[in-house]
């Protein structure tokens, strides 16, 4: 089940300039910076009430974010929803006719398992499903 808006992902060409802009706009420092090697992306997270803003900048020419920004200006890249059981949501959405970009959940930023829904299945919006990863004990 989708439980809430987890975050808005904003693609940016200049991560440091965008971080300064959002620090000023939101009146607070980011709570986390992270490099996600598997996606060739650097991220910066801001907490805004119960949701987050994620700034994303590609770190290689092959990054999905770099390719996205070659076609579009800085701005909203995706909307992410928290889910309680990502595999169950993936199965439910597949059965409902949505095209998923991932066969299995993968590790994303901010200690999440993630899966993306193809924009063609969601009126042109890239949708991300996010589930908190259970810490290993």
From TrEMBL:
<dbReference type="InterPro" id="IPR037523">
    <property type="entry name" value="VOC_core"/>
</dbReference>
<keyword id="KW-0479">Metal-binding</keyword>
<dbReference type="InterPro" id="IPR017515">
    <property type="entry name" value="MeMalonyl-CoA_epimerase"/>
</dbReference>
<dbReference type="GO" id="GO:0004493">
    <property type="term" value="F:methylmalonyl-CoA epimerase activity"/>
</dbReference>
<dbReference type="InterPro" id="IPR051785">
    <property type="entry name" value="MMCE/EMCE_epimerase"/>
</dbReference>
<dbReference type="InterPro" id="IPR029068">
    <property type="entry name" value="Glyas_Bleomycin-R_OHBP_Dase"/>
</dbReference>
<dbReference type="GO" id="GO:0046491">
    <property type="term" value="P:L-methylmalonyl-CoA metabolic process"/>
</dbReference>
<dbReference type="GO" id="GO:0046872">
    <property type="term" value="F:metal ion binding"/>
</dbReference>
<protein>
    <submittedName>
        <fullName>Methylmalonyl-CoA epimerase</fullName>
    </submittedName>
</protein>
<feature type="domain" description="VOC">
    <location>
        <begin position="4"/>
        <end position="132"/>
    </location>
</feature>
<comment type="similarity">
    <text>Belongs to the methylmalonyl-CoA epimerase family.</text>
</comment>
<dbReference type="Pfam" id="PF13669">
    <property type="entry name" value="Glyoxalase_4"/>
</dbReference>
